[in-house]
Design brief:
The chain is α/β, with parallel strands linked by helices. The chain has helices at about 15-25, 55-65, 85-95, 120-130, 160-185, and strands at about 5-10, 35, 70-75, 105-115, 140-145. The structure holds ligand FNR. The site of ligand FNR has 13 residues, from helix 1. This is NAD(P)H-dependent oxidoreductase.
Length: about 190
């Protein structure tokens, strides 16, 4: 089977190291996974004033989440938490009340930073948010300390140890997506 993975890049920076990581992750993923980016940069700041009439960017975001079999977040850690642009996108996807697009969606979180803890605190914060949103979470942790020499100009990971980790992580995520989709199918409790 093939599974559609919608992915978020939590950075708006042109030279984002997390965008670099996202390219490497996609290249190292099993061929059963098909990736589509869910863009966040043009979303207005969310307010519940929009709930009666979502703008096109908000509708497109919710449709992209709902059309995905699984969701991958590739994000930096800003000030020990989730970057504001990504949190804003999650808020859009979670509303209007009762129409949370993340419910029952299998999710995974990975990220990179120059520092040694490799976005661990952001990921911990993300798990609280995704738990509240009833999104099943892949348990494996992907904390990647960024080494510029480990990626070429096409975003390919040239470091065998990191590449091996990412390949295994994504193959396990594919299996997790499959398990959640089976459990979500009609006829299962
Ligand atoms: C950072 N950075 C950072 N790094 C980290 O490991 N923990 C942190 O809490 C923070 N906080 C933080 C706040 C803000 C506002 C910025 C701009 C940066 C450093 C960060 O990891 C580094 O700039 C990365 O390049 C960010 O990833 P992107 O945006 O390049 O993908």
């Amino acid at each position: 089977a093939t599974y559609k993975i919608g992915y978020f890049v939590g950075s708006l920076a042109a030279a984002s190291i997390n965008r670099t990581l996202s390219k490497a992750v996609i290249q190292l993923s099993p061929s059963e996974l098909e990736f589509t980016e869910i863009p966040i940069k043009d979303l207005p700041l969310y307010s519940w004033d929009y709930d009666n009439d979502y703008p096109p960017e908000g509708r497109a975001l919710k449709e992209a989440i709902e059309a995905s079999d699984g969701i991958l977040f590739v994000s930096p850690e800003y000030n020990r938490s989730i970057p504001g642009a990504l949190k804003n996108a999650i808020d859009w996807g979670s509303r209007p009340w009762g129409q949370n697009s993340f419910a029952r969606k299998p999710t995974a979180i990975i990220g990179t930073s120059p520092g040694g803890i490799g976005t661990a605190v952001m990921q911990s914060n993300m798990r609280s948010v995704l738990s509240f949103l009833d999104a099943p979470q892949f348990n494996s942790e992907g904390y990647i300390t960024f080494d510029a020499d480990a990626y070429n100009e096409n975003g390919e990971c040239t470091d065998e140890s990191t590449a091996g980790f990412l390949r295994h992580y994504m193959s396990e995520f594919a299996a997790f997506v499959e398990r959640v989709l089976v459990a979500n199918a009609p006829g299962h409790i």
